[in-house]
Amino acid sequence: MRAPVVDVQNLVKWYGPRLAVRDVSFSVAEGEVIGLLGPNGSGKSTIFRILTGYLVPTTGSAAVAGHDATTQSLALRHEVGYVPEDAPLYDYMRVNEYLRFMAHLKGLFGRSATRAIGTVAERLQLQAVAGVPIGKLSRGYRQRVAIGQALPQRSEATYFRRADQRARSQPGHRHP
C-alpha cells in the first residue's frame, strides 16, 4: 500500500482562546479528490493554510507528499499548488509574465519553466491571452490564470478554495 499524498492526524488549531480546528484526521490517496464542507468559521481555511505550510497547527500533524507541514514547510510549498478563493493577481502583468514569475518562485527556471508554462497555457486554454495584461481579462480568464499559477510545478497536491455560494451563482452551474 502506498503512503497517502495528504495525511492529517489529530489536527488542532487554537487562535488564542478560540478553537478553530478540533481533532481533525483524514488522509487522501493519490488520484483521490476530497472536499472540506462546513459553515463559515468551521476551520476549512485554517486546515488549507496548515496543509500549504503557511500556518502551524497547535497540536497534531499534517504531511503532504511526504513533507511535514510544520518542519518542512518550504519544501512543501514547492510541491503543492494552492488557489485561494480570491487569488492575488497582478493586474499590470501580462499572463505569460505572471506565470513565469510564479514558476520562478516555485524554483522552475529556463526550459523547465518554459515547458511547464506552455503545458499550463495549453491545459487552461490561455494561449490567446498570453500577452494580455491580467487587469484586462474577464473574470473567467482571471480564474484560469489563478489556477495556472498553482500548476507549474511537480505538484503532488493542488488545493482549490472556493466559496460554495459563489459556485452556485455561476451561470450554467448544476448541482446533482
Which short descriptors sum up this protein?
176 residues, alpha+beta, Rossmann fold, 2 domains, 4-stranded antiparallel β-sheet, two-stranded parallel ribbon, globular
What level of helicity do the residues show?
A: 25-40%
* Radius of gyration, taken over Cα atoms and rounded to an integer in Å: 17 Å
Q: Biggest sheet, strands in spatial order?
A: 2-1-3-4
Strand count, sense and barrel status of the largest sheet are: 4 strands, antiparallel
- Please write the string of helix (H) and strand (E) elements: EEHEEHEHHHEH
Note the total helix count.
Answer: 6
At the first level of CATH, the class of the largest domain is Alpha Beta
Q: Let me know the CATH homologous superfamily of the largest domain.
A: P-loop containing nucleotide triphosphate hydrolases
The coarse overall form would be globular
Oligomeric state as shown:
single chain
> What's the number of domains?
2
Give the second-level CATH assignment, the architecture of the largest domain: 3-Layer(aba) Sandwich
